[in-house]
Amino acid sequence: MQAAGHEQVTFFYDEKTGLKAIVAIHSTALGPALGGCRVWPYESEAAALNDVLRLSRAMTYKNSAMGLPLGGGKAVIIADSRADKTPELFEAFGRAVERLGGRYITAEDVGTEPDDMVAVRRHTRHVAGLPDTSGDPSPATAFGVYNGIRAALKHAFGDDDLRGRRVAVQGLGAVGMHLCRYLHEDGAELIVTDIAQKRIDQAVSEMNARAVGSDEIYDVECDVFAPCALGAVVNDATLPRFKAKVIAGSANNQLAEARHGDALKQRGILYAPDFIINGGGVINVADELQPGGYDRERAYAQVAKIGEKVARALRLADERGISTEAAAVTMAEERLRQEGVGA
Fold first, then answer.
1. Which CATH architecture best describes the domain 8-56+72-121?
2. Residue 7: pLDDT above 50?
3. Which residues are known to be catalytic?
4. 138-279+307-334: CATH number
5. φ, ψ of residue 193 in degrees (nearest 5)
């Protein structure tokens, strides 16, 4: 907590439902900490803690960079989303969120969906991403990534035309599949991989994508590599293998370590910082908190501006001779200093 500046980390356990959850509040300098709840079968509590600390810190930067009046937080539930989820589990999680007194607002993430948030709402009002409001944030996230990719292409190649551009998409979940549709409609050539053959088959049949193995995706010659699964895909092992000009996708924490941002810069690979390019979902969810409630047109108008935010980070990196990751962190921290009380 001290190393990364976290304000609060709370472990919750409910014997009756089997809930094992950790909520990490990184910062409330700009407002209550908003961040999703991830359900994942972590190998240990230490692994879960490491993940929630990283994710919550990234949410502080994401919410700051998106211009939202919100801090950063995250929750993880140690469970298998395919076997362990029950309404009672999420009701217990809702009671846990309520105990935090509004300092943390939860929403969907990996392993959760809008219906799970309905169960959470039975015991707390500090929840967003509900079916009767903004719903699934994945389409908004994909729309933001699409706009961010175009901004990165403009910076790297001088134009944002996707026709004939080769894009390698790693992960065809809710966000990845929506992103593929945007790219396909604009004439991009898709190379895809996923752990589920059904999703691969869908992308091949609907978008004429070319499928490769999960490990082969790192060796594909392409204009854009789009990580849309779990994080830390840019690491010591994968760095020498990338043949992309641009890395831009929806996954959180794409860099295994901050130094990998500098390594990408040295290799001439343009990196669109993850917590800026994938901010569409949180913008969409946060719109629920506006006076009068959720307005899709207003939310998506803000999501469309993610391209401008990505472009600003890329320009700042060039101006200061730093990595794009460092530039994005600078943007987020400047707003925290300017607007955050006690930041």
1. 3-Layer(aba) Sandwich (3.40)
2. yes
3. 74
4. 3.40.50.720
5. -150, 155
